[in-house]
Specification:
Length: about 150
């Protein structure tokens, strides 16, 4: 019987391939990452002063409350659909004996500050699809002194 003593080999971990893989991952993430600069944009909105001009033309007011319900000249609509809003605007023009193509009424869109953006866009879309291009969005003047 041959009894030899086993020699212990030292265990070495080669770090070179590991470092190569880490650098490749670092380069991959640096190249594939997009950076958004939109957070750096600061916009100072203009302020309006003075009295609004007197309106001699017919005005249709579309109001949107915080729940997204529509009101056309203080009449509540049965639902929040685009078609319903268009019909209500057309009915208001018929009641005023105005033809949308002949005489352009002025449309005023007023919305609650907690109303969804989608409901405001729907109101603008309804006005635009009816061929009415004179509309404005209302705001209120702030009571704060800057």
């Amino acid at each position: 019987m041959n009894f030899r003593s086993e020699q212990q080999e030292s265990v070495d971990i080669n770090l070179t391939p590991l470092i190569d893989v880490v650098f490749l991952l670092l380069i991959f993430f640096m190249v594939s990452t997009t950076f958004q600069k939109s957070a750096e944009i600061q916009i100072d909105l203009p302020e309006a002063s003075g009295q609004p001009p007197e309106r001699k033309q017919f005005v249709v007011e579309i109001a949107i409350d915080s729940l997204g319900r529509y009101f056309v000249n203080n009449r509540v609509l049965v639902d929040k659909k685009l078609g319903t809003l268009q019909l209500a605007i057309q009915q208001t023009l018929v009641d005023a004996r105005l033809d949308a193509k002949q005489k352009q009424p002025h449309i005023i869109i007023s919305s609650d500050k907690n109303a969804s953006y989608q409901s405001v866009v729907t109101a603008m879309d309804a006005v635009n699809q009816l061929g009415l291009h004179k509309f404005s969005l209302t705001t209120k003047q702030s009571n704060e002194d800057n």
